[in-house]
Amino acid sequence: MTINDNNFLANLESFPTLPTVYTTILEKIQDPKTTVKDLASILILDQSSTLKLLSIVNSSMFSIRSKVSSISQAISLLGFNEVRDTLLTLSVLTFFKHVKSNRGFNIVELWKHSIAVGVISKLISKNLNLKSSDQFFIAGILHDIGKLLLIQVFGDQYINVLNEVSLKKVNLNKLEIEKFGIDHTDAGVLIAQKWNMPDSLLDCIQYHHRLDFKNPNIELIACVYLGNLLASGMQLGSSGTFLIEKPNAKVFEILNIKEGFIKSQFSEIITSYNESLAILKL
Question: Under a CB-based contact definition with an 8 Å cutoff, are residues 151 and 276 in contact?
């Protein structure tokens, strides 16, 4: 099978779309006239999203003395962008839950890895005072989304590729292209395009392994690239393989990371990662 085969294209076409509540919220957030009340009126119609948002705002991530029971108050405390990112995270989690684990592959560990990359990317961006830090968590969450499509299309054949990478220490992207004519980064871009994600997220999915230093979104790409390596090195979930790449030293120049910075982040990474898993019940 190749990416031009009808079976592959059919699988891409049938890949789940984002829920209506997310797309509606996204449209509203892009309108500068939107109020907290406007978002609350949409979310209140989706009980699952409402309960999860309330759970998050009442978690240890926020130092709020009194319990928040109003969705309007939760939106005010979280902020519009955090609401958007939370809904997208919940949507992607649903897609992961539909994929079954099998021999040598655990889908929950892949999801945990994605959470870790999101957490690390956001922490690095925040602590380096990078612009648009709200996108870094979602970029980390989505970076390996293409693997879901490849698992859906190729099943055990794709699991065999992941196992081969671990055993023979070969490059995953090259082996994917050799076996299937497409790698998980290109597959991820196809899904992101289907979901109408912004170009910045498409670029991050595309280049989180093969860095494009001339890309205008290189800081976002570099943070997710580094987050991916750190998540693997710290064994926070599993990307599906047990091969850890040596980081490109230029990444540290791009982000202006000083010696000792990464090590200083470990404690906060573990705390934020565990809080995220608890909130998402993983």
Answer: no
Q: What is the pLDDT of residue 250?
A: 94
Q: What is the DSSP letter of 241?
A: S
pLDDT in tens, 200-231: 999 999 999 989 999 999 999 999 999 999 99
Its pTM stands at: 0.88
103-119 burial by CB neighbour count: b if 16+ within 10 A, else e? eebebebbbbbbbbbbb
Cβ-based burial of 257 (10 A; exposed 0-12, middle 13-18, buried ≥19): middle
Are 172 and 185 contacting, i.e. CB atoms less than 8 angstroms apart? no
Neighbouring residues of 143: CB distance < 8 A, sequence distance ≥ 6: 114, 117, 188, 204, 205, 208, 224, 228
CA–CA separation, 83 vs 52, rounded Å? 10
Contact 143, 117 (CB under 8 A): yes
Compute the distance between CA of residue 240 and CA of residue 141 in angstroms, rounded to an integer: 15
Q: Name beta bridge partners: 102.
A: 105
Q: What stretch(es) of the chain map to CATH 1.10.3210.10?
A: 101-282
| Amino acid found at 178 | E
Cβ atoms of 255 and 226 closer than 8 Å = yes
> 226: closest CA among 254, 199, 201?
254
The domain made up of 101-282 is a member of CATH 1.10.3210.10: yes
